[in-house]
Amino acid sequence: MLQNKISLKANIGKYRFNNVLLNAAGIRCATTDELTKILRSTAGGCVTKSATPQPREGNESPRMKATPLGCINSMGLPNHGLDYYLKFAEENQGKNDNQVILSIAGLSVDQNLEMLHQIQDSSFDGLTELNLSCPNIKGESQIAYDFEAVRDILTKAFDFFTKDIGIKLPPYFDLHQFDQIADVLNEFPIAYVNSINSIGNGLIVNPETESVVLKPKGGFGGLGGDYVKPTALANVRGLRLRLKPEIAIIGTGGIKSGRDVFEHILCGANVVQIGTAFGFEDVKIFDRISKELKEIMAEKGYTSLDDFRGKLKTL
Ligand code: RRO
Predict the structure, then answer these.
(1) Which residues form ligand 1's pocket by a CB distance below 6 Å?
(2) pLDDT greater than 70 at residue 51
(3) Which of 6, 50, 233, 293 has its CA 20 to 30 A from that of 265?
């Protein structure tokens, strides 16, 4: 009975999501067919595969491997180029409170600014996600570990960009890093941060073959799934405690059940994204997890996500 009264609606500023669950960028979101399938599902919207100005093939295969605890990837930004995703976003943004988040990941500051100019000049009026945390580009660092580089790119971006931006962050591991990134981000009118991207440069070893499991970068790759949930929760919580309230948080990392979503929201997530587990289960995962989350809320007497968002207790 109570379950009918339970709402899983969420919002980031003025953007309404009819469900708190989305895919995480990179997972089943590289083609318009995959993106349309997500929009037609229970999910509250979709994020597009991070785009570069031109289409890219990405790294050599094998470049993704599932394990019992999650997965490792070194995709290397394979995508159809910004024009492709921008057109989809222009055509589908915001219908029935289904948001299309347009993710971009330039290989240089100039590429990011070039794409932001193109988005600024377009009819797209949704959220753009600036991915500053791709771990898999050969010879490149993850920008968001260099705090001055983040300040520099955001200063240049907000010089002309008047639409809404979110920032995809890598996991941080030292509390001084939380302080430093929050100090930088609080200087800008950012709509949200998305924490976390995969944990960069893990290594999975196959003891039978005595080998790594991925071809690019000698086998090093980004970790997702069960490996990363506590790190993701710490990042959501650590940033919620430090960011100004106008900056919303998308919680991403290790979500495969209603309980995982419940924990992310307790830590302060406004919206959550599912990566590895969505890759394993496809769009039916949004039905299953919505049901599981509603069951937990019903048991606790909660009817909206606001009833417990950010209310994690300490001892
Ligand atoms: O394409 C990738 O290799 C990739 C990207 Br852009 C990212 O942001 N995170 C990730 O785990 N893989």
Answers:
(1) 26, 50, 73-77, 105, 131, 133-136, 197-198, 222
(2) yes
(3) 50
Whether residue 276 is predicted with pLDDT greater than 80 in this model: the reply is yes
Q: How many domains does the chain have?
A: 1
| Two tokens, residue 247 | 């900056």
Q: What is the pTM of this model?
A: 0.98
Q: Which pLDDT belongs to residue 97?
A: 86
- Is residue 214 domain-resident? no
Confidence of residue 96 (pLDDT cuts 50, 70, 90): confident
Residue 149 maps to a domain: yes
pLDDT of residue 4: 78
So what's the pLDDT on residue 162?
A: 98
More confident residue, 95 or 204: 204
Half-sphere exposure at residue 39, Cβ-oriented, CA atoms within 13 angstroms: 22
Question: Which domain CATH number covers 169?
Answer: 3.20.20.70
**Cα 175 to averaged position of ligand 1 atoms, centre (Å):** 24
Q: In which domain, by residue range, is 20 found?
A: 2-58+77-200+225-307
Over residues 52-64, mean pLDDT = 98
- Find the 76 Cα to ligand 1 centroid distance in Å: 6
Inter-CA distances, 314 with 32, 141, 176, 237, Å? 44, 35, 20, 12
Which residue reads 């919303």 in tokens? 248
Nearest residue by C-alpha to atom 9 in ligand 1: 134
